[in-house]
Design brief:
The protein is of the alpha+beta class. Helices cover 23% and strands 36% of the residues. It is built from 3 helices and 16 strands. The protein has helices spanning 12-29, 32-65, 106-112; strands at residues 72-76, 80-81, 83-87, 115-117, 119-128, 134-147, 151-155, 167-171, 179-182, 188-189, 194-196, 202-209, 213-225, 228-234, 240-243, 250-253. The longest helix has 34 residues, at 32-65. The relative contact order is 0.18.
Length: 260
């Protein structure tokens, strides 16, 4: 027996048991409100651990094993549209009549009737797959154009924003073909190079339209990481389609009224 472990001193196990007993007694003395607040705090801590700690440990393990995946992730949805040309059709051919179509059903209604968008907005979120910086160097448009669609043109009124903002525009039938970037004053600027990581993404909004053609289009995102160049195609398969309304035989609003 050592001097520290004198006879009569409680063992380490006994001390732990005593602490647990006192903790249980304290817990039983608390009101349901206090108990609920304590459980809520522990719940939030658990969620924070899962949200922040687990991804960190995953990347750490991958890095130690030499298997961490660096690169670019691109999130996007089907481009939004605000008007369509229905090739070879007149207004009476569209079913059901516009008066029976809700605003949130216009996209599906247009698709079912074979409409081609007259204007599209593609929203991209580009981010790294790790904490390694990825350089998004440029957006390259790929386009194939033919004559504009001939048929009825239906367009919904879209209010113009009065708040100046940066933009990226692609006129798909322009020559030379390029994506034009403007600042919040509307002045042309040099195409930016984005630097992104997993926790520092970049949002890019691309407006696509044509003047007098029907165009199939896609975008190649050129990026590099660790000095190596890569490409990501948007969409991954197929092409989007946009058409001019210059060849339309009649013009209607989404309320069915004739437009000048």
């Amino acid at each position: 027996m050592t001097q520290e472990d004198r006879a009569g001193d409680p063992s380490e196990g006994s001390r732990r048991t005593g602490l647990r007993g006192r903790a249980k007694q304290w817990w039983r003395r608390q009101s349901p409100v206090v108990q609920g607040a304590v459980l809520s705090v522990f719940g939030m801590l658990a969620v924070a651990a899962v949200t922040w700690l687990v991804p960190y440990l995953w990347h750490l393990a991958q890095r130690i094993a030499g298997k961490e995946q660096h690169g670019l992730a691109v999130d996007y949805d089907v481009p939004d549209a605000s008007g369509w040309v229905f090739a070879g059709k007149v207004y009476a051919d569209l079913t059901p009549p516009l008066a029976q179509v809700q605003d949130d059903e216009l996209d599906s209604w247009a698709k079912e009737n074979g409409g081609t968008p007259d204007y599209q907005v593609l929203r991209l979120i580009v981010r790294g797959k790790s904490d390694k910086t990825v350089f998004v160097k440029r957006l390259e448009p790929k386009v194939e154009c033919g004559p504009s669609s001939v048929g009825v043109h239906v367009a919904e009124g879209v209010p113009q924003s009065l708040v100046p903002e940066r933009s990226a525009d692609l006129q798909a039938d322009a020559k030379p073909l390029k994506i034009a970037f403007t600042d919040d004053r509307g002045d042309l600027i040099k195409p930016p190079v984005y630097k992104v990581t997993e926790t520092d993404p970049e949002h890019i909004t691309l407006d696509v339209y044509t003047a007098t053609h029907r165009c199939k289009w896609s975008v190649i995102v050129h990026w590099s990481v660790n000095g190596d160049d890569h490409e990501t195609r948007i969409p991954e398969k197929g092409q989007y389609v946009v058409t001019g309304s210059n060849a339309a035989t009649e013009y209607r609003g989404t309320d069915g009224e004739l437009l000048p």
